Amino acid sequence: MCVDAGDCPSVWCGGSLSKGPRQAAPAQTRQSNEEAVRSLLSSDQAQKALKSANIDYQKVDKAVGQLSDEDLAKLAERSRQAQSDFAAGRISDRDLLWIILIALAIVVLALALR
What we know:
Layout: H1 14-41, H2 44-52, H3 57-66, H4 69-87, H5 93-112
Helix pairs in contact: 1-3, 1-4, 2-5, 3-5, 4-5
């Protein structure tokens, strides 16, 4: 039996164990935010909007990955809310289309201002 953590090589020291989850959180948050935005932009309504505006989804998808963490977080929050409202019937197809077009404009502007 080990008396303290120094005696047991398989025991994690408190400092290194607590740093692991904290370091992973920003990457996980960013991934979750990218998924939220991509989910909205890959919806049928968004694909129709992209097609009508002659915008290539692959370029938009690449642009999402280049957004700053702050811009991405704001856009993800709006994307989640729009999808939730649409699913609950609180907004129409037309309203969702406008939200998608505004999201696309935000992506383009954020990249242009970099």
